[in-house]
Amino acid sequence: MNLNTKVLTGPTGIQRIEIDVNTKEDDDTVFAISPPGIGLINYISNSYMKILVVDDEADVQPLFLQRFRKEIRSHELEFDFALSGEAALDYLREKHSEVVLILSDINMPGMSGIELLTRIRHDYNLPPPPVVMMITAYGDEENHRQAMQNGANDFLTKPLDFNLLKEKLKTLTDNGQDIGS
User: Do 109 and 149 share a domain, yes or no?
Assistant: First the structure.
């Protein structure tokens, strides 16, 4: 029997240890040990970063898919979309451990992005909490203050500068540190 161990670092800097057990029967069994309280972290075992985009404007989806087509094709990024804060919470109930980053519009009918952010920070703040970037067409100081006060990691304005967003995503995947500037 052979034992091989690997320490893996994911996009948020979280580590896990994989123990690969090879027996005489050529049976490969891999055990993964994650930090306590995290549970299964699918995105670390995969090569992509899962991003949830929350915006009530349906035309945002094809725009993101177009602008990030290369990263999607190379399995660096995977996007899911929710058209409301309520839909985002439904999604997170099922897949919160997979989502590394949430990009949320602030001004939406029903639940606002700030309300969504507050719920995310309350309900899904176990390590590793998702990185949350708030996006708004209004670059006013009050929206920025509220977003940061409620736990946003960053604040972006529309029209979205996709080159800036790509730089921030690269920073996140490279070192797992706070991406705010």
Answer: yes
Same domain, 14 and 90: no
User: Which tokens hold the place of 62?
Assistant: 């094809």
Say which residue, 19 or 110, is predicted with more confidence: 110
CA 102, chain centre distance (Å)? 5
54 and 11 within one domain: no
CA separation, residue 112 to residues 34, 106, 115, 121 (Å): 34, 6, 5, 14
pTM of the predicted structure, to 2 decimals:
0.72
Instruction: Give residue 114's pLDDT.
Output: 96
CB atoms within 10 A of CB 27: 9
Q: In this structure, which amino acid lies at residue 19?
A: I
CA distance 77 to 136: 22
- Return the amino acid letter for 78: E
Average pLDDT along the chain: 78
Whether residues 97 and 77 fall in one domain: yes
State which residues form the domain around 70. Answer: 46-174
Q: What does the block give as tokens for 178?
A: 């706070």
On whether both 163 and 82 belong to a single domain, the answer is yes
For residue 181, is it within any domain? no
What φ, ψ does residue 168 adopt, rounded to 5°?
Answer: -65, -40
Paired tokens of 90: 């439904």
